[in-house]
Structures are given as C-alpha cells and as structure tokens.
Specification:
There is one protein chain. The protein has about 400 residues and is mainly alpha-helical. It folds into two domains: about 180 residues, Growth Hormone, Chain: A, CATH 1.20.1250.20; about 210 residues, Growth Hormone, Chain: A (Up-down Bundle), CATH 1.20.1250. It is about 80% helix and about 0% strand. It is built from 15 helices and no strands. Helix 9 runs parallel beside helix 11 and helix 11 packs antiparallel against helix 12. The radius of gyration is 20 Å and the shape is globular.
Length: about 400
C-alpha cells in the first residue's frame, strides 16, 4: 500500500514537471518569461515544504503516522486539482506552493514504513520506497506526455488528482496505526519534551549533521544537472527533435538503473559497522564519489550514445543517496520523534533541490555549460568528503 502511494505521487508529479513550460505558455505566460515562470514553479514546492515538513512530522509523532500518510496524499491531490483549475501562471504557481505545503508524501510514508520495519531491515524498507520513486519517475513521463498531447493538460492533472485520492482512501481503509512508544511521563507534555530532545540530538550529532550536509550537496548536484544536461545533448545532435528524444531515453535509462540500485544500496545500509555506525553512512561515500566522476565525464562525449553507460551508472548510484540520509536520520533519534526528524531531513534535501539549479544556472552563465559540469561534479565531491568524515566520526544510533 505504501509502495503504491509513493509510486502514484511520484508518477503524478513527474508528469507535471516536463510539461511545465508548455502549460505555462498555454496559461498566457509571454515567451520571454516562460523560463522564469518555470524556474519559480519548479522551486515552489521545495520552498514551502522546507517549512511544512518538520511541522507535519511533529504532528504525525503526536497524532499518528497513518493520518499523515492519508493527509499527504489527499493534500497533494487537492494541489494537483488546483493545477487543473488554474487560469493564469500566477494561479498555477500558487497551486505549486500548496503542493509543498500540504503534500510531503516522502516524509510521511518513510515515517510510517520505518516504524513498522525492524531496525536491521530499515535500509531495505527505505530502498524499496526509493524504488517506487524510480518506477514512478520512469513511468509517469512516458504516460503523461502522450496523454497531455491527446487529451489536454486539464485531463492529465485531473486524472493524477483522482489517482492520489484513491491512494489516500486506500491508506485510510487498509493501513493501521503503528503502536506508539510510551513517553517518560506518559502525557503530551512528556511527548513534546522528548520530541525536542530528539531533534536536539539530531542537530547535535556530528556524524548525522555531516550526512545531512552530504545529502544536501548530492541533491543540489542531481537537480543542478537538470539545468545543463538537455543543452549538452542538444549541442551534439542535429535537431531539437532528436535532442528531445535522446533526453527522454537517457532520463528513462537513469531511472531504470535506479530500480536495482535501490535494492542493492538498501541491503548494504542494513549492515552494521564500527562504533554503532549503520551501513547507511558507509554507502554514501562510494555512491557520491562515483557520481562526481560520472557527472564530470558527461561533459565530454560528442555522441549521445556515449552518455548511455554514464547515465546508467549515475542512476544506480543516485539510488543510494536519499535512503541512506533518511536511514541515518531515523537511526539517530528515538522512534516516537522519527516523524519530526524525517521532516527535518527531507527539508534539508529539499533545500538542495532549490540551491542546485540556481548554482548550475549561474555557473553555466559565467563559465559555460561544459565547465558547469565540473561545478556540479564538485557538489558530489563535497558530498563524498562529508560522507567520509561522517564515516570516521561514527553515527550515534538510538532509534
């Protein structure tokens, strides 16, 4: 049920993202303003989710994580429904802000699923959730692009909203609330005090802070690459039609490689290490180091076919990042403060989603698109460095 909900949310949102420039132009944005409206709409959900994620997580710790799963799917459905009703670019931007404020499916499902899973299988659980993300990212654009061309954007957004409502209702009917741990003095004040203590532990644990920094840098690299990758492909082919086809194929291959990667890295995250350290700390280093190399190498090929192996390796290694970061977060705090902690963790990852494209666009403007690949590779190198220092420091495991 959780896998289906995660798949539905990601598939729906990855349908929306590639269509943004076309939808905004249809809503009346002037051609010269479409890139700016697109950038604003891309960043909007992450900006509001940075604020709302920890708040929803804390409410889930107090009132129940099943309710947060239902709320996230229905809130996302309402936001996508508003996209279908938008008549201007401004209204569409507001609906994207609402998406971040009332959605947050990743944090909600991660909090629920890791509460049910055994500690020594938590990495596999988070890996399987990321596999749902990869599957949705692979299937969503393939179906949505063709459907939008045939039936229109409003039909696509309405269908996505309906699928998310179905996921929310199924969660309401089929999921049960995981048992909660008693607090030290058994009342809401005790739970609030322990939640504050748990978040303080999260923010004061050096290894965990380094892992969060590594996740932020890696997410910045992932989303920064979006800015320069399509222009790179377009520069080595003869027409925009061929470029669009190759970008779609290479994107699909990247997510296809993430499916086995999620299971591979998830299983290795469950292996214990020295000083109580979870394997999740250790998988970040090789994954982000390989990403640094493969991203830089993508600036070199003069034939898009030569990008295929690089994108396959990239997709395989990307699957390590988010599950590993969330695994470390959940292992740092007690179970009954996990929702708020995951809200903070996903907020940090969302910040990378905002900063990465801005940094990549600035680099492409100042030093050119080819050199910008080096800047993005440096983001992954920073992530690898932080992961290495976190590995040496060791992670405190209490949850």
């Amino acid at each position: 049920m959780i896998w289906f909900g995660q798949f539905s949310a990601v598939a729906g949102l990855t349908v929306v993202v590639p269509l943004l420039p076309f939808q905004l132009a249809e809503l009346g944005a002037a051609p010269e303003t479409v890139p700016w409206w697109t950038a604003a709409c891309l960043a909007a959900p992450a900006i509001t989710q940075i604020v709302s994620g920890p708040l929803w997580g804390a409410l889930g710790d107090r009132w129940g994580r099943r309710q947060m799963v239902v709320r996230a799917h229905l809130g996302l459905a309402a936001a996508v429904g508003l996209m279908a009703l938008a008549d201007t670019p401004g209204e569409f931007l507001l609906s994207r802000l609402a998406q971040g404020a009332f959605g947050g499916v990743l944090a909600a499902t991660a909090a629920y699923a890791t509460t049910l899973s055994e500690p020594d299988r938590r990495g596999r659980t988070l890996g399987n959730l990321f596999a749902a993300t990869a599957a949705g990212s692979l299937i969503g654009p393939l179906i949505g692009g063709a459907t939008a061309g045939l039936l229109g954007y409003e039909v696509v957004f309405t269908a996505i909203a309906g699928l998310l409502v179905l996921a929310g209702l199924l969660a309401l009917v089929l999921l049960h609330e995981p048992p909660s741990e008693p607090t030290s003095d058994g009342d809401s004040r005790g739970r609030l005090a322990e939640a504050r203590s748990g978040l303080a532990t999260l923010l004061r644990t050096p290894a965990t802070l380094r892992v969060l920094g590594a996740g932020l840098a890696a997410q910045a690299g992932v989303f920064g690459l979006v800015v320069v990758f399509a222009p790179k492909v377009a520069s080595v082919v003869d027409s925009s039609v061929v470029a669009t086809t190759w970008v779609g194929v290479l994107q699909a291959l990247t997510w296809a490689a993430s499916l086995p990667g999620a299971r591979f890295w998830g299983a290795r995250s469950d292996r214990p290490g020295p000083r109580g350290q979870r394997g999740a700390v250790r998988v970040l280093l090789p994954a982000t180091a390989v990403l640094a190399v493969t991203v830089v190498l993508q600036a070199l090929p003069a034939d898009p076919a030569l990008l295929v192996p690089l994108r396959l390796v990239q997709g395989f290694c990307i699957a390590a990042v988010i599950p590993a970061v969330l695994h470390v977060v959940t292992s740092t705090v007690a179970a009954h403060t996990r929702g708020a902690a995951l809200g903070v963790g996903t907020a940090v990852l969302d910040l990378g989603q905002v900063l990465g494209p801005a940094a990549a666009a600035l680099a492409a403007t100042l030093i050119g698109s080819t050199a910008a690949f080096g800047v993005i590779g440096a983001m992954f190198l920073v992530a690898a460095g932080l992961a290495a220092t976190a590995r040496r420091t060791g992670a405190e495991v209490t949850g």
